[in-house]
Design brief:
The termini are far apart. By secondary structure, the chain is an alpha+beta fold. The protein has nine helices and 34 strands. 27% of the residues are buried. The strands form nine sheets. Strands 1, 2, 3, 4, 5, 6, 7 and 8 form an eight-stranded mixed beta sheet that branches. Strands 9-14-12-13-15 form a five-stranded antiparallel beta sheet, covered by helices on one side. The chain has a five-stranded mixed beta sheet with strand order 32-31-33-28-34, with no helix packed on it.
């Protein structure tokens, strides 16, 4: 209930309604973006609520480090403020019983004021409503905790929150940044309503990443799994929609509503047909008409499998092949990054099928789950865990650059260097030749534009302007490991839009720096364990 409204330097709202009576499920009149657009040119300040607090100093709120005004990072679910104050709200200060206001407080000063006024009644927090920057919700199959609507810009906006617990944590008006269907490895960035309907219709768990509606969403992108195997039923008409690309590659465009593979086939649309397996025969490289004819001729055969793989452009194509693994010890030794077969035992059942120096791209278990970008100990553990199961396989490709002698020397050096780097807490002096492409470089950023563009998650450098101060230092494809702001805040594991937003937010400030991986580093990097070199010119590069 809004009891009074008075204007001072901002709008203050006196909020006395208990949280149990607040209906957060109703949709807002407009999204935050629309509100800001309508408000442009008008003297409208953000609304700041005056929230009553109880006696004592325990609020159950945690704040983002260094934030001012204080940005709520989390709310204790047991706190009486849960559902009234949410993650992303800003605490501007404290108003005591005699209406005296203490504004612009940091976390320590606010805590001191709460202790000093411990027994006073009538105290209130001055709170500005806000949106959490990003929030991931894991949803089990069959659940429907939200209702969304499409904005005029085509993005999906959170219209209603149907789950009571989530209603205390989130606000309507947030945007969907990403759908992640973990069970099958599909990830859709900036999804449409059609994508959301498809995802909700499958019998699978998934997650939604919700974001501040004021945050610019990346371009639409649909990431498909590297491989997927379909168990085909007996019958002639599978009701698949297929097409040939201009390169003669058969592509799954979707499935009809009556298909046994609906709606999964529509979610996996865009994957190419790699292999049709019938009994012990494998048919590869089939065009649409050839595939249709083969499916028709084998319609009465049980146990058929259709293997799909992710489409890559011809320039990106990497010749690879799948090697089935028998039960028991397969007699392989592996090492390095990327993962390389370092030895094939003389009595290995894979002798003559795989060879020393080949790169292992993936491991597929009996449940058709594929593991990629594995470290050696992860791969070895997978072999142990599945030693008694059949229908497992590895995906390998040839490595033309492999030299057994130089590779042995390299691994000897890199293993010693890794051990030394892990035992060191600081950036001690080291021989950079012992870390070929394994050193991160730290760059001091100017207060203005840095002339870099980014893409992907994790973010990599996609373009370097002619005027960039780092044109002779950086290369496209290098990964951004962390960004350190002038206040000491450090952000890691960022997507492209995270980096762009953080750089935009801190433009005009000094003291920023960025940690960038060497050209040879790919995938997850433990920032704490790698050596770092400060670089200000090309001659400083350790590689």
């Amino acid at each position: 209930e809004i009891r009074s409204l008075r204007r001072i330097s901002r709008y203050y709202f006196i909020l006395d309604q208990p949280s149990s009576q607040i209906d957060n499920s109703r949709s807002p009149h407009c999204t935050r973006r629309e509100f800001e657009k309508r408000s442009r040119g008008k003297d409208i300040m953000p609304g700041i609520g005056s929230v009553p607090i109880r006696e004592g100093n325990a609020l159950g709120l945690e704040y983002e480090p260094g934030s001012k005004p204080l940005v709520v990072a989390s709310v204790d679910p047991e706190s009486y403020l849960a559902g009234i104050i949410r993650q992303g709200y800003k605490v501007h200060g404290l108003m005591v019983e005699n209406k005296t206001k203490f504004e612009g407080l940091d976390e320590i000063t606010l805590e001191d004021k709460l202790v000093q006024t411990y027994s006073e009644t009538g105290r209130r927090l001055l709170v500005e409503m806000g949106f959490v920057d990003s929030f991931v919700v894991h949803i089990k199959k069959g659940e429907k905790p939200f209702i969304f609507e499409s904005s005029p810009h085509g993005t999906l906006i959170l219209d209603k929150i149907l789950d009571d617990d989530l209603r205390k944590k989130l606000r309507t008006g947030m945007s969907i940044a990403e759908i992640n269907i973990e069970d099958i490895g599909v990830k859709i960035t900036s999804p449409s309503a059609a994508d959301l309907d498809l995802e909700a219709s499958i019998d699978s768990n998934y997650s939604l990443t919700l974001t501040d509606p004021a945050k610019k969403l990346p371009a639409y992108e649909k990431k498909l799994p590297a491989r997927y195997t379909i168990d085909l039923p007996v019958g002639e008409d599978l009701k698949f929609k297929m097409a040939d690309s201009k390169d003669g590659i058969c592509i799954l465009e979707g499935v009809e509503d009556e298909s046994f593979f609906c709606p999964m086939g529509n979610i996996l649309s865009g994957m190419i047909v790699d292999t049709l397996v019938v009994d012990s025969f494998q048919f590869s490289g089939l065009r649409k008409d050839q595939l249709s004819q083969t499916l028709e001729e084998t319609a009465k055969v049980e146990g058929r499998k259709l293997r799909l793989k992710k489409f890559v452009s011809p320039g990106e194509s990497t010749p690879s092949f799948r090697v089935p693994l028998p039960k028991g010890d397969v007699g392989l030794e592996v090492e390095g990054d990327p993962l390389i077969i370092s030895k094939v035992a003389d009595d290995s059942p894979l002798n003559g099928l795989v060879f020393e120096g080949q790169i292992i791209l993936g491991f597929v278990d009996a449940a058709r789950v594929e593991y990629q970008n594995m470290e050696d100990f992860v791969f070895e553990q997978l072999l142990v865990d599945t030693t008694d199961t059949g229908d497992r396989a590895i995906i390998v490709k040839n490595n033309e650059d492999y030299d057994p002698i130089s590779n042995e020397d390299y691994n000897h050096i890199s293993n010693e260097s890794k051990s030394e780097s892990q035992s060191s807490e600081t950036d001690a002096d080291f021989d950079s030749s012992a870390y070929p492409n394994g050193v991160a470089i730290r760059l001091s950023l100017p207060s203005g534009s840095i002339g870099l563009k980014f893409e992907g998650s994790p973010a990599v450098i996609s373009a370097i302007d002619e005027e960039s101060p780092f044109r002779d230092i950086l290369k496209t494809g290098q990964q951004v490991l962390s960004l350190i702001q002038s206040d000491g805040s450090e952000y890691e594991n960022m997507a492209d839009y995270d980096v762009q937003q953080l750089l935009l937010d801190t433009e005009g400030t000094d003291g920023r720096s960025m940690l960038v991986a060497g050209p040879g580093m790919k995938g997850y990097v433990d920032v704490d364990l790698i050596p770092k070199v400060d670089v200000s010119r090309k001659e400083d590069l350790p590689y």
